[in-house]
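Lab notebook, bench 4. Continuing the backlog of folding jobs that were queued last week. Each job is logged with the same field layout so the records can be merged later without manual cleanup. Today's entry covers Branched-chain amino acid permease, a 241-residue chain. Filled in by technician R.K.

JOB TYPE: sequence-to-structure
TARGET: Branched-chain amino acid permease
LENGTH: 241
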Amino acid sequence: MSSSGKRDFLEGVRDLLPMVPGVLPFGLIAGANGTSLGFSPEMTIGMTLLFFAGSAQLAAYQLIQEQALPAVIIFTALMVNIRFLIYSATFAPLLHSLKTRHKWPLVYLISDQAYGLCATRFTPEQSDREKLYYFAGTAVALAVSWVGSVILGLLVGEQIPAEWSLEFAIPLAFIAMLVSSIRNRASLITAVFSALVATSLIQLPYNLGFIAAIIGGTTIGLIASSFITKISLKAQRENNG
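JOB STATUS: finished
OUTPUT FIELD FOLLOWS
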């Protein structure tokens, strides 16, 4: 690695470090709940490496606890991670010239945190090498902190008596993620509608109410976002005369 590459890599690591405290609680929960569900440490770590997506892993834990159908678990994990399609589409014009052997590891390691840092920093004028090393720095720092916190959760979870049920931690984790993601009226409408559908259809078998809440909430969110955007554009045109 050249000196400039090392500098860009370390800069990515440095920029990611302030976000590590936000990753640790979810990793601890994922590791500790793997133990409480009866998974072996190898299974939990394997699941962590396979998913490499904390929200999808916690959602899968929740559905496994509720004995949902495998198809429901897989569909839910895919829907929770559907935002990565948008991340990839955003990066495509900026990283399309990278070599394939560099793209695949970055595809696997992309995360919310790495995306947020890179999306605000990358420009078409930057060199591929600069973008590659900075992205790698953020991605590796996040991966080490995530997997490390899951392993720590496994160690802590083994020390916790079985009667100290940790199941409550997963809904709390999702509530924390939900609140932090509500940033405008469209996302608030989506969250409220999804919650109403999920609670009203809770009696459906195989957790199908959860799937209905995802599909219904996404649909209403798109409609609300389009409507709000039209209202804003109309008001802007009226103000401009």
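OBSERVATION: The chain is about 80% helix and 0% strand.
SIGNED: R.K.
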